[in-house]
Amino acid sequence: MARVTLDGVRKVYDNGFVAVHGVDLTVEDGEFVVLVGPSGSGKSTTLRIIAGLESLSDGQLTIGGRVVNDVPPNERDIAMVFQSYALYPHMSVYENMAFALHLQKLPRNQIDARVREAAQILGITGVLERRPRQLSGGQRQRVAIGRAIVRQPRVFLFDEPLSNLDAKLRVQMRREIARIRRELSATVVYVTHDQVEAMTLGDRIVVMNEGRVEQIGSPLELYDHPQTLFVATFIGSPAMNLVDGTVSFDGTPRFVAADDPTFTIQLTRAQSERMRAGAPVGVVAGIRPEDLRVVPASESSSEQPLSAVVDASEPLGNEVLIYLHAARRDLTARAATRLLPRSGDRLSILVDPARVHYFDPSTKRSI
Questions:
Q1: Residue 222 CB-density burial (10 A; 0-12 exposed, 13-18 middle, 19+ buried)
Q2: In whole angstroms, what is the distance from residue 118 CA to residue 149 CA?
Q3: What is the pTM of this model?
Q4: Neighbouring C-alpha atoms within 13 Å toward the C-beta of 237
Q5: Is the pLDDT of residue 3 over 90?
Q6: Which of 59, 159, 231, 297 has the fewest CB atoms found within 10 Å of its own CB?
Q7: Residue 235: pLDDT over 90
Q8: Average pLDDT, the chain
Q9: Please, where are the H alpha helices in the chain?
Q10: Please, which residues have CB within 8 angstroms of residue 232's CB and are 6 or more apart in sequence?
Q11: How far apart are CA 282 and CA 298, in angstroms?
């Protein structure tokens, strides 16, 4: 396998549109890195630059220590799995997987060994003689992955490979891809718009937005310590609640919501010190749904609970999502299933001050 390094990589099209703005990224040997972001964020363009399917306009790309800016795709020793399976319909599974090896003019016994080894890893040994039309969606995706595995490349590239599968198959294939990666100890760059795929598969995640890298980190690092408002709202489902407001240092330092002075959150000592060091007058408070706690009527608290009205609730089996209206805004809370309020019910909610994130509304960055 190999290390992949992008140093100031940019992509500017002939019409002047900048698709990728100076991406700096190092994917270590054997690492699984996921590029995630909404449509138009530049993630697939970045992957295609690594593959050699798009030329870069500026910067340097190295694979295994070799600069490959002008190296054609077939000489980069990479294998790519696309969103569409792109299988040859007139060939059997075996022939689809062996095709690239025949082009390399490898000995037949070596081709056979590689195909059968990959089929064993993927659990498709029993369908090697079938045509693609005789396979399920999950089996076709395994064949597409197998076609990449048999080449034994230095780097695997995946471009939204699970988008065409239904929800149950996506979960199954995520497990398969994670297992295959462990067995092969492969270097993988994986593109998806699905944050669940990113969180469950990646050693590190690169969050992209409008051609720029917003943040790079481990899944929990991005969830617990988002550096920008975009990362805070993109990572996590349901999305983080955002509340505009100001910080008051009259008496106990606290955040005060802009539209409702009754919605206040006490600042921790660390938060207060950061705010005093030069925070803007206006701030945005970010609160994860699990950090909005519904307070039973019998429970007393030193903090004043916020009164909220239930708009709707969604029981999901292991939890319930509660959609609330409070402080003149819509909020989402996550609670245990034993609590299932009805529309119109009034609840008291508390916020864990230590779990609140604060952002500068002008720079969109964490304070």
A1: buried
A2: 6
A3: 0.88
A4: 7
A5: yes
A6: 297
A7: yes
A8: 90
A9: 43-51, 93-103, 108-122, 137-149, 167-184, 195-201, 219-224, 229-234, 269-276
A10: 226, 240, 242, 286, 357, 359, 366
A11: 35
Distance CA 20, CA 213 (A): 9
Give CA–CA dist 331/262, Å, rounded: 15
Would you give the DSSP letter of residue 73?
Answer: G
Prior bond to 289 cis, omega within 30?
A: no
Q: Which of 358, 365, 83 is nearest to 246 (CA)?
A: 358
Closest CA to 212 of 31, 38, 33: 38
DSSP 8-class letter at 47? H
Tens digit of each residue's pLDDT (9 = 90 or more) over 44-67: 999 999 999 999 999 999 999 999
Please name every residue paired with 333 in a beta bridge, in sequence order, or none if there are none. Answer: 322
Please identify which residue in the block is written with the tokens 């609640």.
241
Residue pair 196/36 in contact by the 8 Å Cβ criterion: no
Nearest residue to 218 (alpha-carbon basis) of 194, 243, 235, 234: 235
* CA–CA dist 83, 253 (Å, integer): 51
Q: How many whole angstroms separate alpha carbon 356 and alpha carbon 264? A: 12
Contact criterion met (CB below 8 Å) for 349 and 295: yes
Token look-up 């471009």 returns 159
Q: How confident is the model at residue 132 (pLDDT cuts 50, 70, 90)?
A: very high
Tell me the two tokens of residue 168. 């149950």
Residue in the structure block whose two tokens are 């992955």: 145
Alpha carbon 15 to its chain centroid, in Å, reads 30
For residue range 19-37, list pLDDT tens digits in order.
999 999 999 999 999 999 9
Q: How far apart are CA 256 and CA 262, in angstroms?
A: 8
Q: What is the DSSP string of 263-318?
A: -EEEPPHHHHHHHHTT--SEEEEEE-GGGEEEEPTT---SSPPEEEEEEEEEE-SS
Residue 93 is encoded by which pair of tokens?
């599974």
